[in-house]
Amino acid sequence: FIIKSMEEFVQNDYIIAYFHQGMKDNSKPSLQFLWNSYKELDRSFKKNLKKLYVVKLFFLHPTTFIKMVWFFFKPVISEKFKSKLIYTSSLDELKQSLGLNTLKVPDTVREFDEKINNSSRYLRGSKSSLKSSRSMEHIPRTTQFGVSLKFIIENSACLNCIPPIVRKCVDHLSLSDGKYCLTNDIIQNSVYKLATNFKPISTVIDTEGIFRRSGNYTRIKELREKLNQGDEVNLSNEDTHVVAALLKTFLRELEEPLLTYELYDDIVQFAEWTTEEQRSRNVKQILREKLPEENYELFKYIVEFLGKIMERKDFNKMTSSNLAIVFGPNLIWPKQAQMSLDEIGPINAFIDYVLQNQDDIYFVDINKKDGAYD
Q1: Nearest alpha-carbon partner for 94 in 217, 262, 179, 200
Q2: Whole-structure pTM value
Q3: φ, ψ of residue 18 in degrees (nearest 5)
Q4: E-only strand ranges, the chain
Q5: How many separate helices (H) and strands (E) can be counted in the chain?
Q6: Which residues contact 81 (CB under 8 A, 6 or more apart)?
Q7: What is the DSSP string of 17-84?
Q8: What is the pLDDT of residues 122-132, one digit of tens each?
Q9: Measured CA distances, 292 to 87, 164, 295, 299 (Å)
Q10: Phi, psi of 365 (to 5 degrees)
């Protein structure tokens, strides 16, 4: 049943998140059953699987059963598949890895996750809790993650309201990765002259799945902490997906979403705007008139950057719809309840529309948001 249900999804790239929690002796599948199931999977299941997240919701260590399964299958699993296996120990860590602001999981899983993490914090002592309390009392002025956009602008060198880390990420992801080939040109009359024609053979912006694939969670966390402490960070040697994930993390951890809580209800109505005239008028009104100026400028900066990503879609496979799916939940979310599946569609469609029509939307000068339409 599971294999049959998954067949329509595995024809393209896909990710699996497996929650290991609450297994009892009478509910464990036998190793023979797992082996037979593995042999039933055709090539598309294995080839198109990009990441397998195993969320280990237990107190201290992986269960004996997990260890046995891994030991049993290790000889027949390729190194390539092993690199796709990622262990996480909490729902927060899974959200970071997937680049999502919220997760739709059963209440029992969420409650167990909270219980385990609270227990783990207790076992580690109260030192981290005290540190957290102190940080709330006095947030370092260098902080860029987990604070408001206004706080960053007031305390950092933000040219045109663009936070330093955003500019760093965009600059890195927009430029060549520095790999070049050297060619020799033979000059006429049998005179040989070395001509240093450097040609870029690979660029960061062409990286396939540049925003769709996950970066190393541990490294992202390390960079985030360094930046919040005011340490200088050089992204030139970082993995492309780590830098891409760092940008998404910044947006996701803003104290208020970039498109603001106030505009959430307006944006989720996008599907109700059935004509091009309605969509053009309402989107321009939301962005030009209702969005605060600092949010407007940062959003425009990101949209323009994503436009450059789209121009290289033949290489990076990031179309406007793909980018909208990735960035939608990181740009807008509700203040109280979790985002429902019915609301995700209109939000992604709104972002997709903006990406496809950015030249028309931002035709006016960025500093003249007077709402004067063409």
Answers
A1: 217
A2: 0.64
A3: -105, 125
A4: 14-20, 49-56, 85-88, 176-187, 191-203
A5: 19, 5
A6: 46, 49
A7: EEEE-S--GGGPPPHHHHHHHHHH--HHHHHSEEEEEEEE-SSSS--HHHHHHHHHHGGGS-HHHHTT
A8: 333 333 333 34
A9: 40, 19, 5, 10
A10: -60, 140
Residue 198: pLDDT band (50, 70, 90) is very low
The CA distance from 54 to 88, in Å, is: 6
Domains, the chain, with CATH or none: 1-111 (3.40.525.10), 149-175+202-362 (1.10.555.10)
Interatomic CA distance for residues 144 and 151, integer angstroms: 8
Angle at CA of residue 325, ends 248 and 223, nearest 5°: 15
pLDDT in tens, 147-159: 999 999 999 999 9
Helix (H) / strand (E) element for 301: namely helix 293-311
d(CA 320, CA 95): 22
Q: From CA 291, how far away is CA 258, in angstroms rounded?
A: 9
Q: Which two tokens stand for residue 369?
A: 């948001």
Query: In whole angstroms, what is the distance from residue 248 CA to residue 254 CA?
Result: 10
β-bridge partners, 199: 181
Give the CA-trace dihedral at 302, 306, 309, 311, to 10 degrees: -130
Tokens of 70: 């891994």
Span 332-374, pLDDT tens digits: 999 876 777 788 899 999 999 999 999 999 865 544 444 443 3
Rounded to whole angstroms, what are the CA distances from 55 to 2, 62, 69, 91, 99?
Answer: 19, 10, 15, 8, 15
Q: Cα–chain-centroid distance for residue 150?
A: 23
CB atoms closer than 10 angstroms to residue 333:
21
Q: Which tokens sit at 40?
A: 């039933």
Average pLDDT over residues 234-257: 94
Q: Which two tokens stand for residue 136?
A: 């709330």
